[in-house]
Structures are given as C-alpha cells and as structure tokens.
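During the reporting period, our protein records have gained a structure token line. A sample record is set out beneath this paragraph:
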Amino acid sequence: MARVVTFTADLLFGSRVQGSLAAAGEDVELVSDRESLRAAVEEAGGGAPEVLVVDLTDAALQGAEQVRALRDAGALSRTRTLGFYSHVEADVRERAQRAGFDLIVPRSRMAREGAALVARLASGGPAVEPHKG
C-alpha cells in the first residue's frame, strides 16, 4: 500500500480518482489547495507520499509550478509525480515536463488506468512504457 496525495480542486473527478486508488489498496489523501498540498507533502508523521497525483487542467491550481517549487525545496525527493491534463492542451503537458513530472497522461487515461499507473510509479517501475514494435 502506497501513500498517495491527489491535488485537484475538481472534487467530483478527485473523488473518482480517490475511490479507484483506495479500491486498489492505496492510502489516498485528496487536497484541493496549495496550503493543503504543502502540508500533505511535508507531513512529518505520515512521511512523504510515494506518489503525488496532480490535476494540470485547473490553471488556478498551477500544478506544474507547485511541483517545481516543492521539488526545488527538496520536498519531493522520495516522491514520484503523476500529472493529468486535457489532451487538447499541449502547452500544459510541456510545462509539466519542464517541471520534472515522472509521468504525464491525458485525463481520460487517468480515469481508466489511474490505479495501475500509481501502482507502477509507487513500486519504482518505469514512468514510460517500453516501446513496442
């Protein structure tokens, strides 16, 4: 069981992600603002989360920027990051890549495969699938 923090202000989708991750046996905390994110990631008692899932679709959250700031502060040294975005916003994906996310997927894929993606990251598996061909 991995400790997972999910950062989203979309409580409907966030609850869906939280439910699928919890059903897969993950210990999930849902946070919806920057202060709660920082507290959840830096929480001394619970330890650093193994995986941080970030909603990149909400510009007000500034998910990529928050991850970059946490990474620069050393708060994510033991945490893998998974961001999800709207597939029509290529610039959002590019910002997340520059911020150093381990894995960035379209929101639809997060909805379908979120538990498997989190499990792979939490187990230390590769962020990028091997190329088949």
Summary: The chain has one domain: 3-122. The first helix runs from residue 11 to 23.
